[in-house]
Amino acid sequence: MDHYLDIRLRPDPDFVAIDLLSALVSKLHRALARLADGKVGISFPDSKAMYLGDRLRLHGGLSSLQSLMGSDWLKGMRDHVQLSEPVAVPVGAKHRVVKRVQAKSSPERLRRRQIKRHGMTPQQAQEKVPDSAAETLSLPYLLLRSASTGQRFPLFVEHGPLLEAAVPGSFSSYGLSDVATVPWF
Q1: Distance between CA atoms of residues 118 and 137, nearest Å
Q2: 3 catalytic, yes or no?
Q3: Per-residue exposure over 28-50, b if at least 16 CB sit within 10 Å of its own CB, e if not
Q4: How far apart are the first and last CA of the chain?
Q5: What is the CATH classification number for the domain harbouring 10?
Q6: 8 in a domain, yes or no?
Q7: What mean pLDDT do residues 131-159 have?
Q8: Catalytic residue among 29, 59, 80, 159
Q9: Are strands 94-101 and 81-83 parallel, antiparallel or unpaired?
Q10: What per-residue confidence (pLDDT) applies to 110?
Q11: What range defines the domain where residue 180 resides?
Q12: CA 172 to chain centre
């Protein structure tokens, strides 16, 4: 994680920034899934409260970033973004985990799971998992479309606390990790 590059969304009268950012992260996800090496992380340096901002930052080694950017993953998005070149991370930068958080938001799904895994009757599952069990998150999110089911789903993003030292690890095909940190500056 010694280099980074920024991808900034250009203002567009036809699209809201969050829709463009969601499309950009969807394309990045497909590219990172193809690479399958877990060496590129992401962050949203302009994130505030429920807004992820209009800039996506990619973190990784210089060769990993060059390899990713050498592929054609930005096809169809180049008119909507402004790219920086990969540059070295500033000396003394702090670090933080940027991870995906999933809400247990569907009581019906939780009930089906209770029935299947614990042999409960529908009535027992209803009593154990009431409608009020739905969890809501107060985190910014992207709306993505599942490649397997075609359904749209929210990908909630949480920026963890600032840390003095980097924590190594690998990143998912979304560029997120529960343990590995990215530089923050």
Answers
A1: 27
A2: no
A3: bbebbeeeeebbbbbbbeebeee
A4: 13
A5: 3.30.70.2540
A6: yes
A7: 85
A8: 29
A9: unpaired
A10: 81
A11: 3-102+139-184
A12: 9
